[in-house]
Amino acid sequence: MEKLYGNAIVGQSGGPTTAINATLAGVIRGAIECDAIKTVYGAKNGIEGVLKKTLIDVSNMTEEDLKLLENTPAAALGSCRKKLPKDFEGENRKTFEDIIAVFKEFDIRYFFYIGGNDSMDTVAKLSKFTKSIGYDMRVIGVPKTIDNDLAGTDHTPGYGSAAKYIATTMQEILRDTAVYTVKAVTIVEIMGRDAGWLTAAAGLSSLYTNVEPDLVYLPEVPFDFDNFYADLEKAFEKHPNVVVAVSEGVRTADGTYVGEGTQSGATDAFGHKYLSGTGKALELAVKDKFGCKVRSIELNLPQRCASHLASKTDLTESVSIGRAAVKAAASGETGKMMIFVRGEGEAYEIGIDSADISGIANAVRSVPREYINERGNNVTKECLSYIAPLIIGEPELTFEGGLPKHFSFS
Amino acid sequence: MEKLYGNAIVGQSGGPTTAINATLAGVIRGAIECDAIKTVYGAKNGIEGVLKKTLIDVSNMTEEDLKLLENTPAAALGSCRKKLPKDFEGENRKTFEDIIAVFKEFDIRYFFYIGGNDSMDTVAKLSKFTKSIGYDMRVIGVPKTIDNDLAGTDHTPGYGSAAKYIATTMQEILRDTAVYTVKAVTIVEIMGRDAGWLTAAAGLSSLYTNVEPDLVYLPEVPFDFDNFYADLEKAFEKHPNVVVAVSEGVRTADGTYVGEGTQSGATDAFGHKYLSGTGKALELAVKDKFGCKVRSIELNLPQRCASHLASKTDLTESVSIGRAAVKAAASGETGKMMIFVRGEGEAYEIGIDSADISGIANAVRSVPREYINERGNNVTKECLSYIAPLIIGEPELTFEGGLPKHFSFS
């Protein structure tokens, strides 16, 4: 195939992760190495930045800056939640034409989009549109999501670091809550609206120690309050300090989110329905049922931005998949999402490939039922073995004044 | 002075910190090195373990185990909240006599208690009682609290690590929340019921970067909702993403805790008053006032147990103060609390001394008003300079399967 000479744009979209900047560094490295690409621009706030022409020339970033970027949380280019119109008809067509006008103005022949489901949808539409108008360019998606719920890939960049943060923090909370002898329940609420991959990581310490959460509830199994109370009773027989890991997305059999306030039913002084959160709802339920000390902990944003505790494996793979995206584009691919393929052997090995985006965008990959025990209150050893290699290794961070140093474009 | 030969007991009490095990390792090292002490026992769950005679011989711990112990969160010996009776009269006397009976049975001549205010109270009473009955022994308190609110010492062991966790996490949250362009407020609730030392650490990144929380509220200044709204208005003029750090203990001028539900006034379906927490209360207030996106984050237990992000300075000092406690006791001191004394020079230097416990127990050291700006919505540079050296340095951790390795006595 003939080489396609031109410039490139890379953008970031959707919720930040600890590894999305590592992938950005990978794309930039790949573009610098690629002789068909002259200038590589970073679009501020994803596709919004393309439309607004807020483009930063990142072709001359130093090795030192790229290293720092790899260890910086959040999206260094900024992010957006913009979805492209559903088709190319009438009014809708204008958005696509506006984007192409910018591409033509800057001689853009390569577009790399790092993001989740919505971003892959953007990649699918843009590649379809450019083909339909005969504008020769390569559009490639690079996945990221801490949720690990994208189809077609062994796992997603960003998941390993989030899993490492959750497993490490859970182990520290388990040590902390064990110091007293009074009966107490600690409920740890973990991100994951539809898929329980993050919550599944809470028990990783059980592979190496005798310390693990007593109960682990995922959204893949309907949540039952009576079973929950019975599970707690049983756990109290073992020790006075019971620790529960629960996905924010757990629902009862009728589909109601546990955190939606069905249990608490609270409203505030302004009349708002009180969306207390799943952990808080369970805290109130346990307090009412057992009358013991209860605490709920929402791990919250640090799950996706605690770069000080990133997984080296995750960061290395995230750089590699970004670089591979450029190679795939340079070799002629378009309308693809980059994916991880795990080797079949005993030892963990990961390969990088690309897959047609149409089969992937908007599909959700849940935790398979066989990765969850029969009772639905913990994950299996097989599940933990799948996650375990993804959290291995610690990045070499640069500190200033005791704080990790970050990279910033501004 | 003649040497006092005998055995020693060390115990841990009160809420865990990241550094309380480092102090324990320091006391154990000191006791092993001290030729007057034959056997050193660890009492499980503090003074409760003395009464129950659940004593562990820790005299033969290996260097490897002691190193691991230094990097283990929570209280490895377990903790308690037990307060000794207020005097030695009638019924009350029995508890003290029971303790002395155990001391005599095990030939205990040294008692080291690592803890906060309540534990220093125990040290004060025990040393007074042993003197009153003429039982020759040395009772020394070693402070610990993440709150940094003990009087008589420059700072407390455990504070530096908590401050490092808060400053690092805040910096990561600031990066994360800055990626979108929509108007949003993020409220970060930080521990500290009466003293704002922990919240003051939230802005440490401003010493090295242009990234810092917009507003910082401490319990030392009465919280005013109208001022808060005006502060937010002003912050929005600078950027769309405003981040607020707030102590859990902030109170309005009439002394009511902001988190007590005055604003939300909510009750749940069981009729419980809804103690939403300070962050949640402010989240609701901002949502009502500005109608923008608001998120509250409670940093919660990781503030006191995130040993993976401990301050090396804090851990080193915590070991030293434990060791120094044994030296002080061996040289004849009793009824004392060990303290840190900061050097007067430019460069940070810390010395260790002891102080009479009676003047210290139960006194609270707040953030001085001159460390807070006039408006009461941030701390001063002097305040940050006081905290800055305490978070320097990172411990060398041992990892297994990507998770920090911990020490356990069981």
Give a quick summary of the entry:
Chain A is α/β, with parallel strands linked by helices.
Describe this structure in words.
2 copies of one chain form a homodimer. Chain A starts with 5 loop residues before the first strand and ends in a 6-residue tail after the last strand. Chain A is elongated. The model of chain A is unreliable at 262-266 and 268-272 (pLDDT under 50). Chain A folds into 2 domains: 6-157 and 306-363 and 393-404, 3-Layer(aba) Sandwich (Rossmann fold); 160-305, Rossmann fold (3-Layer(aba) Sandwich), CATH 3.40.50. In chain A, helix 1 (20-33) packs antiparallel against helix 3 and helix 1 (20-33) runs parallel beside helix 11. In chain A, strands 3-2-1-4-5-10-11 form a 7-stranded mixed beta sheet, sandwiched between helices. In chain A, strands 7-8-6-9 form a 4-stranded parallel beta sheet, with helices on both faces. Chain A has helices spanning 20-33, 46-51, 63-70, 90-105, 117-132, 159-177, 197-200, 225-238, 278-290, 302-305, 312-330, 381-387; strands at residues 6-12, 37-43, 55-57, 108-115, 138-143, 184-190, 215-217, 241-247, 293-298, 336-342, 350-356, 399-400, 403-404. Chain A is built from 12 helices and 13 strands. Chain A has 410 residues and is of the alpha/beta class. At the A-B interface, helix 6, helix 9, strand 9, helix 10 and strand 12 of A face helix 6, helix 9, strand 9, helix 10 and strand 12 of B.
